[in-house]
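Long-time lurker. I teach an intro course on protein structure, and each term I like to show students one example going from raw sequence to a predicted 3D structure in token notation. This year I'd like something fresh instead of my usual example. Would anyone be willing to generate the tokens for the chain below so I can use it in lecture? Attribution to the forum is fine with me.
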Amino acid sequence: MKSNLNIFLDIDGVLNNHSAHVESVSLVSDKIQLLNFILFKYLPNIIISSSWLLEYDKETIKIILERSGLRYSDIFYDAIDYRDGELSKEEAIENYIKSHLDEYNIFRYVIIDDEFPSSNELKTNLIYVDNKAGLTYKNIYYLEKKLIKLEQI
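-- Reply from a regular --
Happy to contribute to a lecture. Here you go:
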């Protein structure tokens, strides 16, 4: 990994919105551009934590995101392991953090998602996105505040 900052990224409800959620690969370009801003500014590691992983492998998701305008140039990219739906998203994120803690300095992370985790630790690192709007400037503002705090750890 190139960065000490990690973003667990959900897709549905974040990079699209309720009105755009007609088909599973429908993404909204202004949501992608907001995320690009963060990628260019902080060069975080992206860990896909989306239910899309139940349908697509991580390389297919990467291709879909790139074709939608997401820029990955120097970004490390990975995905949580749902184990074919045996784990909840929250369990899969927690497993990823535990298994990569030492190797990737994974304690410095945020989760961008439209669902609330039940774990208080995960909630602390959550940037909640309203799925009716998708990712907004307000989310980016809070994300930057969290990332700045994480950089000081």
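Some talking points for your students: The first strand starts at residue 6 and ends at 9. DSSP finds five helices and five strands in the chain.
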